[in-house]
Amino acid sequence: MELNVKTLAGLDAGTISLSDEIFGLDPRKDILARMVRWQLAKKQQGTHKSKTRAEIARTGAKMFKQKGTGRARHHSARAPQFRGGGKAHGPVVRSHEHELTKKVRALALRHALSAKFKSEDLIIIDDLVAAEAKTKLLVGSFAGLGLTNALMIGGVELDTNFKLAAANIPNIDVLPVQGINVYDILRRGKLVLSKSAVEALEERFR
What we know:
Elements lengths: L1 E5 L5 E6 L2 H4 L5 H15 L58 H17 L3 E4 L9 H11 L4 E4 L6 H7 L5 E4 L6 H6 L2 E5 H10 L2
Parallel strand pairs: 1-3, 3-6, 4-5, 4-6
Antiparallel strand pairs: 1-2
């Protein structure tokens, strides 16, 4: 598959051949959904916690005698039914991670890339390099390319000026190629790859 390559200034910079095995798949929503769920579960902190009756700082003495009061039988004031008592079956600190095989994760990334290509939301830029770290200049370049909501993937090393200039632009994310992931690809409207990023991806899936 051939795709036109552009510069940040919006000029034509030739064409690039894309691998059918990476960008030419028929996207499967179920695989993408599994991958997004795996990523969000891995990201979830799991630090929620409520105290059980064993952790409440109240006396454990019997509230009143067993018989003769006309009231229900009770023991500790730390029981869940009392105000200030412990929580029954409350949340505990735990990990929300679950297993997803490497093959499925790799396949999901290829399906996400193919989905962007199929929807014509994939743009190839020759190089993500800025002459100076000026956000205003970069905003003008993005406007010429029609980029208002995009994930931009550079090579192994990001250009410092480009990274700094793009940091203040809303709805624009910039990542090195090793940080590419399904969730960020799908949450942004456009996917912008540099030529070096395309080469690195093809080498990764070879």
